[in-house]
Amino acid sequence: MGRIDLERLSREELIELVLRLQRPDKTSRTSSKPPATDRKERREQSKPGGAKPGHEGHSRAISDDPDAVVEHRPDRCLCCSGALHGALPAEIVSVSERIELPEVAPIITHHRRLVVQCPTCGTRVVAPVPEAARGTPFGPRLHAVATYLKTFQALSYERLQAALSNLFGLTLSQGGLMNLLQRAQRRFRSGREAAVSALRRAPVVASDETGVRIEGSNAYHWVFHAADAVVHSASPTRGAIVVRKMMDGHRPAVWISDRYTAQQGHAAAHQTCLAHLARDVAYVVEVSDDPVPWRLQLWLHSVFTLAERITDLATSTLAAKRRSLDRQLGAILATPSGCDLTRALQAKIRRARDQLLVFLAHPGSVEPTNNGSERLLRPAVI
Fold first, then answer.
1. pLDDT tens profile 311-358
2. Neighbouring C-beta atoms of residue 195, cutoff 10 Å
C-alpha cells in the first residue's frame, strides 16, 4: 500500500490499520498455528547448541550378544621381547564394537513350468501353475518394507521409488507401488475393524481433524482415539457426518475436541481442549493491556496445576475445587472491558463454559487438552 492509497483511507480506517500493525503476529504459542510457521529467532537470541554445562555424558551400551568375537593378543613382550604364546592366561582390558549392516540384495526365484511328453501315449503334459507364481511377483517382506517406508516414514511415491532402487536395486513403477500398498491394506482390515469396534464401545473418545491433499484435491484427515483404539479416516468433508458415520450411533460419556462446530454434540458431556484456549488467551495478553486476559491466564494455570495431581485427590476435594474454579471464572467473565479482543474472548469462553472443567469429574480418564489427537495426526500429515 502506497502513500496515495493511505491518503484515500478514512480516519477510522487509518486507526484500524495502525492498531493492526501494533498487534504482534500470531505464533504457535498464541494460536493454533503450527510451530513450523513461526519466524526463526535471531541467531544471537537463539539457544546455543550442544550439551548444557554440567550435563553428564552417555555412551552407547556394548551389545551383550555379538554375532562374532575377535580377540587381539600381544605376541611379544614390549619390555624384554620375549614370546607370549597362546597358552598364557589373558584378561580383557577393553572392548570395542564395529557395527555394519549386512549386504542386502533381492532374492529372485524363477518358477519354470515344464512340459513333458508321455512316453506311453505321446501326450504333452504341462505342470500346473504353482501357487508362488499366482498374483503379484512381490513377496510379503517387500510389501512390509514398502508399507513401512510409505506410512511410518512418510515417503512420497517418488521418494519410495528412489529408496527401493538405491537400497535394494529394485525398479518399481509408481503404479506398481500403489497396487502393492493397496494389497497390503487388506492385511490390516481385521485390525481396523477391531479398532473401530472398540471405539464404538469406549466411554471416552477424543477427535481432531486437519486438511490434507489427496490425489490433488482438498480433503480432511480425521483421527478418533480412545484408551485402547486409534482410528484414522480420510474424508472429502469436514462436516459432522464423518463423526456420525464413524460412531454409528454410539454416544460416549465424554467427547474431547476443540471448539469446532462439527465436533459438538456427540456425547453426554464435552471436554473442550484447554490448550487451544490457553493459546487464544496468551495472544490477547500479549496485544492488550486489559487485566481480564491476564486473570484468565492465571485461572488456566490453576486448572493445569490441578490437572497434574488430579489422581491424588479425593472426589469430594475435586468437586469443591471445581465449584471454586467455576465461581472464579464467572467473576472474570462478568468483568466489563473496553477491549474488543477481551470481549470476544469472554464471549468465546462463555459459550464453552460448561465444557471447560468436565475432566475433573473423570479423574485419570479424561484429559483437559486434546493434545493426544494432535500428536496422532502429526505423523500422518508430514
1. 999 999 999 999 999 999 999 999 999 999 999 999 999 999 999 999
2. 19
Q: What is the dihedral of CA 236, 241, 247, 249, to 10 degrees?
A: -160
pLDDT of the residue at 152 = 84
C-alpha–C-alpha distance, residues 219 and 85, integer Å: 74
| Structural domain boundaries in the chain | 140-190, 201-268, 272-371
Residue 184 pLDDT exceeds 70? yes
Label residue 59 by pLDDT band (50, 70, 90).
confident
Helices (H), 219-273: 241-247
- Would you state the cell numbers that stand for residue 205, as one nine-digit string? 473418545
> Rounded to 5, what percent of the chain is helix, strand, coil?
45, 10, 45
Backbone φ and ψ for 211, nearest 5 degrees, come out as -75, 140
Dihedral (CA of 266, 267, 270, 272) sign: negative
Distance of alpha carbon 88 from alpha carbon 91, whole angstroms: 10
DSSP state of 83: B
CATH architecture of the domain with range 201-268: 2-Layer Sandwich (3.30)
How many other β-carbons are positioned within 10 Å of the β-carbon of residue 326?
15
* Nearest to 311, CA basis, from 362, 360, 364: 364
